[in-house]
Every structure is written in C-alpha cells, then in structure tokens.
Queue: 4 jobs
Job 1
Amino acid sequence: MNNVETLCHVKYIVEVGGEAFAKIGTPNNTGTRIFCVSGHVQRPGYYEFPCGTITMGQLLNEVCGGPLPGRKFKAVIPGGSSAKILRFGERFKGKRKVGNDMVDYDWGVEDVPLDFDSLGMIGTMGGSGGVIVMDDSVNMVEALANINAFYSHESCGQCTPCREGSLWMKKITTRMVHGQARTEDAALLKGVADQIPGRTICAFGEACSWPTQSFLAKFGDEFKATPRPGRRPKPEDLIV
Ligand code: SF4
C-alpha cells in the first residue's frame, strides 16, 4: 500500500527520469507536493504544486478560498494529523540558507513556504501533505480527543509506551471532553505524551505523541479545565 502522491511521482519519474523530476521545486526540496486540504476552508481539495513554491497563506487563501464566512483561521496541521499543529498569530524567527548566504526569516504561519526544510525549521513537518485547517469555531480539546482516539485505535500494541500511552492520552482527553477532567489532567496528559517519543520501535510513538505535545504547547489554556459536572464518558469512549 502506498499513498497517491508517491504513485503519481513514480509514474512521472519512470516516464521522464529522476533528473527531470529533480529540476522541479526548489534546491533541496525537489519535485512536487500534493496537498490534501481538509477542514474549514471554502474550497477543500487535492492540489499539486512544485515543492516550496507556495506559502501556507497562498494555499489557504488563494487556492482554497480562505476561511468560511464570518470565521478566522485558528490553527493548521500541515502534514497529516501527527504533524505538530501551528497556531495562527505565532511567529517563527531564525536564519536559513538561501543560495550561499544565511538570511534572517520572520514568518507568521501564512508566510511559511510549504517545503520540508521550512516546515522542519518551524518545528513541524511536511509529512503526508494532509493539511487540516481549523477555524475559531473549533474546541481544541475536542479536536485532540478525536486525534487521540484514532492513534489509540491504530497502535499495534507491541511497545508498552505506545500501547499504554496512546490509550491514556485518549482516556484523558475523552474525560476532558465529557466534563470529567481532573485538576491535574493537563499536566498528566503532558507527562504521558513526553514519555513516548524515542522509546518505541517504530515512528508511531512519535506520531501519536506529537499532537498532544503541540496542542498543549500552543493551546494550553484550553486544556486547563477544572473538574465540573457533566455527562460521564460512555464505557466505549474509554476503551480501545
Ligand atoms: S510504536 Fe509502532 S511497533 Fe510500537 S506499539 Fe506503536 S505502532 Fe506498534
């Protein structure tokens, strides 16, 4: 099994050769990227561009038509749900290589070129190209609970940190969503997520922990829930 982008690339490379493919895009980020944009934009869809020739702002505003009426962009996950989330309004500063020179950059989320190096420099990744857009209607605890349910289900169970960690992250965010959060839950959630990366035999350990780590880092205030009455989680919400 492979993804559509890879199959498209292979077909093209077989037809024209690797050298011709490598001339597309930008230095060190060659070829094309296929972005699968989902969520809160006017024209979600599947868009292909030479790598690094379009920014996040151009993709979301010009290609995808911008936010839904009356809404503002709140966050975007640039490379599939395991990629660390970006918060609109945050800025990224540093130096990057352009030709033979090192130049300063100062980017908002909209300014980031969609290539592997640039997304890596700002602490996330190009990953699968699955661009998930969230506007200001989204509750980030609910969004993370949805992601955590997915990763908990997908863990194969071979490594204890991934098997137990993904399950516990799901349990904690589920009880937060259902109004059963404990005072210590935000810290507990971070503690669980921080103990998974680097302790598993495949990259799924990182993949399942990065969403929780980045949601907490970028939207920590939304996770500081205090215990409050609410509907108790259903048993099926708490098991894999
Ligand atoms: S890290 Fe990979 S191998 Fe280990 S339990 Fe998770 S999915 Fe399975």
Job 2
Amino acid sequence: MKADNTIAAVVTGAASGLGEATARKLAAQGVRVAIFDMNAERGREVASEIGGVFCKVDVADVESVSVGLAQARAVHGQERICVNCAGIAPGEKTVDRDGNYHDPARFARAININLIGTFNVASQSAAGMVKLDPVTQDGERGVIVNTASVAAFEGQIGQAAYAASKAGVVGLTLPMARDLSRDGVRVMAIAPGLFMTPMLAGLPQEVQDSLGKQVPFPSRLGDPSEYAALVQQIVENPMLNGEVIRLDGAIRMGPR
Ligand SMILES: NC(=O)c1ccc[n+]([C@@H]2O[C@H](COP(=O)([O-])OP(=O)(O)OC[C@H]3O[C@@H](n4cnc5c(N)ncnc54)[C@H](O)[C@@H]3O)[C@@H](O)[C@H]2O)c1
C-alpha cells in the first residue's frame, strides 16, 4: 500500500523517539497522522508540527484506546496504518541483593503497557480496518506494525519483565497476521536493537558510546529515522506479513 495523502495512520508513543520519527516520516509522505501518547505536552507539539492530531491515550486502558480511535477517526477517517511504539523499559532483577523478589506490580505494569497495550490498539484498529474497502489488487485493507525488541530474544540481567512483554509482542505477530489474512490486513513487528531515543539518551555519554561500540556494523546507536524507514517499507511491501524483523546492526546482547 502506498503511504500517501489518501491514507490515515495511528502511531502510539509518537510524542517521542521511534514513534515520533515514524509519525514525522509518514506525515512527510502526506499521510494523515494521529498521535496517541500519555505525554500530552510533547504529543501536541509534534502533532502541530506535522499537521496531525493528538489524542491523549493510555494504551493499557481499553476504554482510553476506544475513545482515542473514535477521536482520530472523526478527524482523519478510518486508519489503514497502525504503528505501536508506546512502551516502557523498566529494569529489575528477579531477586535483588537484599533477597527481595521482583515487585509483581512492576512486572504486571510492563506486560500491561508493552504487550496488552499493543494488543488493545492493534485489535481495535484491526476491527475498523476490516470494514474498509480494499485499496490494492491483492485486496489489502490495512497494516499493523508492532514494536518488539532484541530483548525478546536476548533479555539481559534485570530485563525479565521487559523481555517477557516483548516476547509476547513477538508471539502475537504470526497468529494475528493469520487471523486477519482473510481481511487483507497485515501484521508485522520490528525488533530494534539499540536506538538513540530519549529512552537511551538519559544514559551517561560513556555508556552510550560503549553501547554503540558493541554493535558489529555500523558501530553506533541506530537513528530513529532508520526505524521509520523500515515502517515505510513494511507499509509499501505487501509480501511482508506475519514476521518479526530485527533492526540491530547484528548485535546479540550479552547477559549485561
Ligand atoms: N530505543 C531503543 O533502543 C529501543 C530498543 C528496542 C525496543 N524499543 C521499543 O521501541 C518503543 C519506543 O521506544 P523509544 O525508545 O522511542 O521510547 P521513548 O521513551 O522515547 O518513547 C516511548 C513513548 O511511549 C509513551 N508511552 C509510555 N507509556 C504509554 C502508555 N501507557 N500509553 C501511551 N503512551 C505511552 C511515552 O510517553 C513516550 O512518548 C518501545 O516499545 C521500546 O520498548 C526501543
């Protein structure tokens, strides 16, 4: 499907980082973009810069997602592109130095936002997409791109909750693509390695440099525009379906 001004998109987590870069890239192609985020101040700024709409949505809350989708659709019409970038990256060991077990509420929060939040938006978005007329000769109606992480495959020390949430995103990719295949809606996931976003920018410079050096090639942190470029390719290439693409410069994370 061509990403152009005939199409509307919803991008979650687009007040920052990978989602923001994706919203900017799609808007630059003419796509009408709705930004879903909890950060209303940044979300509104980005939306006004790209001529899109902002909806304050908590992806972990089913009702909030429904209201946000209704708001976005009232302005832009039913979206054909749904990109899920909203997420959190908490760190906590299974048992800490003092012998305390992992806070179960923090584990549940990671699952609620990263996994259930992704599914909430993707499933409700799909329910709208399947009612659309197809736009291509193949009968394509829409495309959903979710964001996993290389932590889904090589979770590091302190990443039990985060890695489990991202492994869930990997796990739902193929069955969702199969569920929606009769309706011409594709489902893909991107598993980023290390990208230079506010999630990593908070780390000291020497830690950022050392992380960048661990990437075999190119030996640096990824630029969010490189994530956005892959989203565009996924939107435009109809054979990409039901798969998780690592976008990581060949990094394989060690235990720490
Ligand atoms: N940056 C990386 O290196 C990297 C690597 C692998 C995976 N990822 C994943 O990519 C995604 C985007 O990461 P980023 O680096 O751009 O992070 P980021 O922190 O810059 O942006 C995440 C955005 O999600 C929003 N958000 C958080 N919880 C939300 C909720 N409940 N409802 C709605 N919005 C919410 C935040 O407000 C923020 O704007 C995340 O899912 C992250 O796990 C990032």
Job 3
Amino acid sequence: MTPHNAEQQPVHHTPVLLAEVLDALEIVSAGAYIDCTVGEGGHTEAILGAVPGCRVLGLDRDPSALATARIRLAPFGDSVRLANVSYALMVEEAKVHRFYPADGVLMDLGISSLQLAEKGRGFSFQRDDPLDMRFGPEGETLAEDVVNHYSERALIRVLQEYGEEPRARRISNAIVRKRPLRSTGELAKVIEEALGRRGRIHPATRTFQAIRIEVNQEMRTLETGLAAAIEVLKPGGKLVVISYHSLEDREVKVTMRDSPVLRVITKKPIPTSQEEVRVNPRSRSARMRVSERLDGGL
Ligand SMILES: C[S@@+](CC[C@H](N)C(=O)[O-])C[C@H]1O[C@@H](n2cnc3c(N)ncnc32)[C@H](O)[C@@H]1O
C-alpha cells in the first residue's frame, strides 16, 4: 500500500538529478544497465523510456520498495529484471541475469521518500514507530539495539562518524540516561530536550541518519558495492553515483580517483539545481559523480 504523509496525501519518491543521470549514462540501444538502488523505480523508468531497446537490472534491499517498482515497471516487460538483493552482490546477480559486463551502473544512495513515510519502518523522527531502521528484513541489527545496548562511547562514535554531529556527547549522554527508549518518538524527544530547538532543521536529523547508517552498515556496503560496480562495467561503461552526505561523497570521490581502471568524468561533484531543490527540497544535499571504465581487466 502506498504510504501517506501527515495530511493523508500519498507519498511518491521523485528521482533526483534525473536529466543529469540520463546524460551521464550515455544510454545506447541494446545497452545493459544496472540500477543498484531501484527504489520506487523512478530512474529505471526514465532509462528504459529514454532509449528503446536498452535493458535494466534493478536491485534493492527493501522488498517493499521492490514491490512498488515491480508494478510501475511492468509495462517494460522483459526489458527489466528486478532482484531483492544488496548491490554488494551485484556481480553474481549481473551474471545470473546476463547483465555482465554492463554498459552503466547507477547508485542512488540513501533513503527514499517512500521509506521515510512508511509506517513501522522507524526512519523518520516525525512518526512514532518502533526503533527498526533496517532497509530489509534480513538485517540483524535494529536501531533499538544501537540506542539501548551500545555503550555511551560507541554511541558517540556512531553519531560523530556517521552523523558528523558536533553535539554527539551531549546527545549520547541523554540517551544513556533515559534508556530504554521504545520508539522513534521517544528518541526524537530525548534529543530535542537535550539540545533545544533552533532553526528549521530538527535537532534529531543527524542522529537518525547516523543510526540508520550503523544499522545497515552503509559505509562498508558502499565500499564493497563500488568495487563490485567497477568489476561489472565493460570498458567505456559509466559509473554514476548520487550521494547525500559528505561521508558517502568522500568515499565515492576517493574510490573513483584512486581506481586504476576508472577515468573520472566529473572533476567536481554535480549538485542539484536551484529549480530542482525548489520543487523537491529533499534533493538539496545530493551530489553526483561520474566515471568511465577504462580498458583492461575484462
Ligand atoms: C534514494 S532511494 C532510490 C530511489 C530510486 N532511484 C527512485 O528513483 O525511485 C535508495 C534506495 O536504495 C536502497 N538501498 C539501500 N541500501 C541498499 C543496498 N545495499 N543494496 C540495494 N539497495 C539498497 C533503499 O532501500 C532505497 O530504496
């Protein structure tokens, strides 16, 4: 079922940097593309619609996102394959579905508007949900484990490292004093009480991001995923990555720069335009980097 926002309007995820992604992939007819984070299928739909004859393999860790994508992409028939696996496993998956080697790989990292709005997932501080935050049901660690069972020191590290939260100590101390915490609402309230509220950004924003990254081991997965993407590409194939915070962007930048089999196309990351941010405020932190796979290896 489509999630609804507080005003009971259905929520859809708007694909970010869409025109830029299509440009960067340089899609060719009969080309094989891997959308590592198919989500609601926005980018994949546009890729398939842009050039007749191309094919897309869409991956997502989240079965619920994939179910939505499956309905949306049904009109494309056999041109699209969907699989409920982590992009860390894309090499095996590409071989199974005959997408190896691929003409392009897209990674649109982070979380979708749909997931943020979905009841029971625990991604949003604007809902009162159980502390879950896993992208898929196979994940073993829940946000609840991080919040209620990590030592104060470990919590500080998570908030500093993955949230770049300057007030990590104060927040972690408040959490430890108030736990056990049972819901996202309780967590958001503890943070708000510890920090007070200034400005438009909710004080729990960075903490929620940090816990989500820890729960899903997103940085380690990104490292594995980037290596897999490089392996799967054919010479001349494009790697396009959209990241949403500086930690991810740094990992993408360094991996592209240091890979002996990639040529970096975007010397600077491509941001969203003012117009895109106006229409879709959530896209404001997006940064896109593009590289081309060089000869050799395959
Ligand atoms: C920003 S959304 C993608 C939105 C999509 N591009 C669209 O246009 O609808 C990111 C997606 O990546 C998925 N995801 C996160 N980690 C993943 C992983 N390791 N492997 C595959 N998918 C992952 C999330 O479940 C989420 O659906």
Job 4
Amino acid sequence: MKYPLQFIAITQYHHQGKCLDFGWSNAHGGANVPVYSIADGVVTFAGKETGSGNVVYVKHTNGMVSNYAHLSKITVKKGQNVKMGEQVGNMGNTGTSAGNHLHLSIWSSMSAYQKSPTKTDVDPIEVLEVYSDQEIGEGTKKYNLKVHVDTPTNPKGKVNVEGVLNVRYEPSTAHDRVGTLANNTEVEILGEEGNFYKIRAKDTNITIEGYASKDYIVK
Ligand SMILES: [Zn+2]
C-alpha cells in the first residue's frame, strides 16, 4: 500500500486511534495537492460528513478500509473502482479542521469500521510504503517510514535447439530429466553453474524448473 500524497509530511501522529495527519508545503504543490488512494479498491462513500467535511472511503481488495478527510474537492464517485495511486480528491480544510491538511484513517475491515467509526485499528506506518515517485519531508524522516522495494525480475532467455531441450535435476547431462522444452520457449534464468543455466519455464500448463545447457539458451 502506498502513501496518499506525493510529498509526505506527517503533522499529527496517531490520534483518534492510529490516524495520521499530513501537511503541505509551497515547494511541493501548495495546500490543495492531489490525494491518492493507498491501494486498489472500490469507493464506498464520497460526500460530506459532520467533522470530516468532504470525505472519501475506499474498501480495498485486501479487505481494509481507508478514509481521506477534509478534502477541498472530491474527484471520485461512490461505486467507482480505484487503483493504488489514483486520485480521490484534493487536500483541503472542510469539516472540523483548523487548516489545510489530510486526515487519513485505516481500518482492518468494514466490520471494524462499523464497530468503531471514530477510532481506527490499523497503524498506517505499519502498512504503507514510500514509492520512488514520492518524497519524505525533513521532519517526517524520524518516523522511519517503510520504503517500497521492487521484487527483482529474473533475466529472460529463449530456447534455441533442434528438437527439444532437456531440463535436468542437476547441472550435468548424467542426471535425470525434469522434462523437455520446445524450441523458442521463453525461460526465466534463475542462476548458472558451469555450462548450465538454472531455468524456469512454462511447458503447456506445468512449470518446469531445472538445469539446461547454456549452448541451447539465448539471452
Ligand atoms: Zn486528523
């Protein structure tokens, strides 16, 4: 899950349960910057609420519910699907608010929200991550926000053989075959040992993993 603002500046830490308030800076787009959904989900409410002012609720695909309060403007409608990082509104000063800021609440489920709409049960610091297109304000660095790390993708190769390529349990032609792969099959290269690559590939509908001679795989 991703922080809801491009410039992340926490101004109030863990109030009303575990909510966070975020501020703004003139150097980073001013007071009415876009507010983004923290994850994929569906908008369950978009409108006015006492206290929260203009507010958007999103029920996420992992079951969690998030709420973005005091918005100056709402840019989504109830029932709309949103992606992580998609704009739901703009930061504002509506409802019970003493200045432009974003109030973010996260509940673990819709029933947790219904049981306790004014007190959240999820700590945003625990579930949100900073992505490479986001920036952390100086004063917020002390909170040690989690940084998103992309899972590395393995290099790809292609089978180049007359007939079929033997994939074996161990990096030696003396070992049994896990299976065979047809010419031109795309493979994932997981590692190498001597003249063998450790590969993974889909053969019709099963996934084969094992060793194959480097001579028959082009990177
Ligand atoms: Zn707040």
